[in-house]
Automatic annotation (TrEMBL):
It comes from Paratissierella segnis. It comes from the Bacteria. GO terms for cellular component: membrane. It is a multi-pass membrane protein. Keywords: Ligase, Membrane, Transmembrane, Transmembrane helix. This is O-antigen ligase family protein.
Amino acid sequence: MVEHFKQMINNSKFISYLKGPDIFQNLWVNSFVFRILNTIVNLPIKFLRKIYYKWNNIFSSSFFLRILDYLCENFHHILGLFLIINMIIPDHRWYNKYGVILTLLIFIMFLFKATIKKDINIDLSQIDYMAVIFFLTIFISAISSLFPKDSLNYLIYYFITFLSVIIIVCSINSYEELDALVKFMMLGVFLTAIYGIYQWKVVGIEVNPSLTDLTINQGVGGRVYSTMGNPNVYGELLVLTLPFFGSIILNENSFFKKIFWIILSLPILLVLLKTSSRSAWIAFAIAVFIFIFLWNKKYTPYLILLGVVALPFLPSSIYKRILTVFNPNDTSLKYRKQILGPAFAMLRDYWLTGVGLGSRIVNIIYQRYKSFGLTTVAHTHNLYVQLWLEAGICAIVSFMLTIFRLIRNTFVAIKEKNNPSINNILIASLSGILGLCVMGFADHIWFYNRLLFMFWINISIILASLKLSKMENK
């Protein structure tokens, strides 16, 4: 009976879809719309390539172009520096226009690389079709917004985020380039941790009553926020990126290099604790569990046992902070419940199309629904409710399906075991994303544009890894 039931499950269409070829992506790639779109986005490259090779003798003698050529040969290092800059500039000195300018400069360099390298193109077939649909729904929500001018500012950052995904996926063509990009990114995270420790130990951080309920969190102290301006936001960045230390340590062949990366991870783990972000701690624990389960699930019982044994040895302030999650008197939990009630009422009126892209637009309409006693509400403290309110049912469904397809495609790639090193990077990236998605139930993790950007950078690393895995399978 049990064997018959197992056979029914294994023979089901849903399981066949999970295990078999990606039918829907193949249909998209072979569609007329895709071919037209892919041709259009590559027209600038073809035009520039014609000019370059027509005047190749002149261009090849240019000192400036030779420097550009060298930079393009090391484009993955430039991308890594780009990610570092996005992370290490302190919040009080960061402007979103910096991200826009940096991305456009990187895109210009990518165009130059594609011009001189005939094997480089914008290959939209490597971008999951559901991610394309999601960004299309974001565009529609911006132009159909109740306040289109306000939504335009948010749309610009979504645009450069999608552009960065395309650049990374299309320019990374070897494991060595992918590995270098990940290592650069983790060096950037390490630098933010050093800055966070400097804040904590040298400058000092005052306790902010708006971020910590002092009546039930005595002894917690100031919360580290590093370059992100908010401890919860910084915790989100660490949850998203810390799993990559696991992949780097596993992929390094040298014992001393493994030790080097373990040492680099220690300050980051320390500042994660000092963020005092309960949702970040829980999300990180889930990310670690997912990482171990995907890497070698036989170690998951030992991980759970280690976690239980470690609890009594935690510093008392951290242990007490964890217990406040279950305290019904915690003001942050009460505050979130107060926010979500009116938000669900608002959803009943705007569930189909949303009110328009951007938290500011949601806030304006939210004033009609908020309960008595609520003052300023920056966002709903829930990614999924916020996204639904902003961009409607199509956006939230396409986003959830994008995450589902990333899980599905990662599982298929891991099962094929083409390259263990690439698989480890896939596991790390997916673990960070799923950990942060869990955190999204307690906070609007895309409220800060740099976190929106880094979230999709993680997705671009998954897509680039899947591309490399397919290349090795051929």
